[in-house]
């Protein structure tokens, strides 16, 4: 019976520490913009590399900073007005 109480106490302590750390981080980051970038002109360049010991691959991607230009990348080139009407 005492081992179940011990395990419950340890689990409770771990949860309490995680909760305390979460609250600390949220208070430290309050009001800060930590993700994304400001919209604008030009491109971001993202370098992607993968190596698995014997071989690998390296490439770069250019991502537009303009949100509308980024959204247009996902629209198919052959789209027609009837393709956009999905209610039919």
Any overview of this molecule?
42% of the residues lie in helices and 20% in strands. It is an alpha+beta fold and 88 residues long. The protein has a domain at 40-76. A two-stranded antiparallel ribbon has the order 1-2. The longest helix has 27 residues, at 2-28. The protein is elongated, with a radius of gyration of 24 Å. The N and C termini lie far apart (64 Å). The mean pLDDT is 85.
Helix-strand blueprint:
Elements: H1 2-28, E1 43-51, E2 56-64, H2 67-72, H3 81-84
Low-confidence blocks of residues: none
Average predicted confidence as pLDDT: 85
Number of helices: 3
> What is the 3D form?
elongated
End-to-end distance = 64 Å
Features:
single chain, 88 residues, alpha+beta, two-stranded antiparallel sheet, 3 helices, 2 strands, elongated
Short description:
With 88 residues, this protein is an alpha+beta fold. It contains three helices and two strands, in the order αββαα. Helices cover 42% and strands 20% of the residues.
